[in-house]
Amino acid sequence: MDSLTLTRPDDWHLHLRDGDALRAVLPDTARQFARAIVMPNLRPPVRSVADAAAYRQRILDALPPGLPFEPLMTLYLTDNTSADDIHHARASGFVHAVKYYPAGATTNSDSGVTDLQRCEAVFDALQDTGMPLLMHGEVTDPNVDIFDREAVFIERHLLRVAEQFPRLKIVLEHITTAQGAQFVAQSREGIGATITAHHLLLNRNAIFAGGLRPHAYCLPVLKRETHRQALVAAAISGNPKFFLGTDSAPHARHTKEADCGCAGLYTAHSAMALYAEAFEHAGALHRLEGFASFHGPDFYRLPRNQTQICLQREVWTVPAELPFGEATLVPMRAGESVAWRLSPAAV
Ligand code: DOR
Ligand code: ZN
Predict the structure, then answer these.
(1) What CATH architecture is 10-304?
(2) Could you tell me the CA-to-CA distances from 303 to 16, 34, 191, 271 in Å, in that order?
(3) What is the pLDDT of residues 230-248, one digit of tens each?
């Protein structure tokens, strides 16, 4: 198969940043995806419907003319988010989910939740409105090994929240472990997971290949090969609980190549080509459309897209760096090849 036509996909987990950075990265996403769930971890975070409305407008203003794209906004859950905030968000029509970051877990997460028990009124309101709770599923306990933080989060917190709020829709974001995939596959209805292209294609050896590789560092951190294989199995299974979320997270080159480098891989420049590679390696290209274009809107109860994109089998070399406002960023596969390419002839 040398070309692949798919219902236009959506990205159910994306970091777009703001200002010049937003303008630099947004076209990469809008070329491939009709919609994206936009992460709220700006500085300061997107905490209110008014913040989300303003950010949404900045995104629309940053779109190149003629590229249709719908940002699906999220609110950043803090210790102070109220049930009223959730009802207000639902009524807005443009806020589609609430994002939970454990305080201190990752980039700009210091205003995150310090104790899940404080969120009970919010979880009740989410259940009532049907709006999903998007969870960065890692504990921040420094005594827990960084490679175990997702599995421990499931045991210590997620099992209890899922049971205590039986109608709460939960997306375990960017799963990285066999335990994450297994939890979601076995869980009740209303629990899903996003999977990134980088966690399907890389294992933790990539962080140490011939030296320390800051551009392969993200959170949750890449795991060992057996976990990567479990994620591939989940993604190609056809199970509608699993859907596409790139977690494309751009950082300026100098902030990753630093004493304390930022977490995040930039994959939006060739996201669909990277997913196509992963599915093709697994002999499952026929499962890509469900994962990329159907399972997400079905979970969020949004209509599936009506237009299509086309990918061609064509080996091309990713640039060594891309413009990023005043700085540059180093995309995944910088200076290396990708086996598929988005065709400009999208329908
Ligand atoms: O690698 C990551 N980068 N993980 C996150 O959870 C946040 C993201 C970012 O915003 O840079
Ligand atoms: Zn993220």
Answers:
(1) Alpha-Beta Barrel (3.20)
(2) 23, 11, 19, 22
(3) 999 999 999 999 999 999 9
